[in-house]
Amino acid sequence: MDAEHRGPGTPPGPAPLLRIAGLHKRFGDLAVLKGIDLTVAAGEKLTIIGPSGSGKTTLLRCINHLEKPTQGHVYIEGELVGERMVDGRHVEMRDREIARLRTKVGMVFQRFYLFPHLTAIENIMVGPLRVLKMSKADARTLALELLKKVGLAHKCDVYPERLSGGQQQRVAIARTLAMRPKLMLFDEVTSALDPELIGEVLNVMRQLAAEGMTMIVVTHEMQFAEDVSDRVIFMDDGLVVEAGAPHKMFRAPDHPRTRAFLSAVLDRQAYS
Fold this sequence. Notes:
GO molecular function, one term: ATP hydrolysis activity
Order of helices and strands: EEEHEEEEHEHHHEHEHEEHH
Number of domains: 1
Distance between the termini: 44 Å
Number of strands: 12
Shape: globular
Pfam family, one: ABC_tran
Number of helices: 9
Strand order of the largest sheet: 8-9-10-3-11-12
CATH topology: Rossmann fold
Radius of gyration: 19 Å
GO cellular component, one term: plasma membrane
CATH architecture: 3-Layer(aba) Sandwich
Strand content: 25-35%
CATH superfamily: P-loop containing nucleotide triphosphate hydrolases
Structural class: alpha/beta
Family: Belongs to the ABC transporter superfamily.
Membrane topology: Peripheral membrane protein
């Protein structure tokens, strides 16, 4: 891997699962991402921290082409996401091609987005049935296995309105896993939960991390980030300001902006 495309704090090794090169994103006159270079290795757990408005969510949405980058490129397993080369030019992919690549990248959002008219198990079965073309029996077997994995097998026939927020988020995680992604993106998945429900979702994420799932996690749960991450990056104003090992980032960050952010967040969490 050439140094030009190696993200901050990235160790040497084999070709990455994810590579982001020179990524910019503008919404009209507002520059949200201002040149992101980042790589993530297979099996790596990367946490992104930073203040609101720093570009964290936009970065995740660009990875699976929910947002089209203004400039720069995203690669999954060396394959361009959202575009292809034609006669030396980058051309937008067809929707079907983008959908195929998105199956490699699962994303769990702040909100749960479960189908209210479907039970927990039916919500999980939708993707395998429609996208992976599984039989109904195989999709149900997979969905039940995943409900067991997130501790909700006993809720398989319950509709979302009868589930707690933490239970709904765990179903959302299971639904994403049903597509068998190679990379999981978590966008502040506990931010909409009551404090007593946060732990049950973080425990599922800890289990996935222990099993070797490649994960990029945007979170304000700093203890979780320190415990689970292989690497932490701090973003501010659309840029990666600092990156490093969790202990270094949380105990002795180099950049004054990182220190100020962590001081404010950790002080607030200590008294919450």
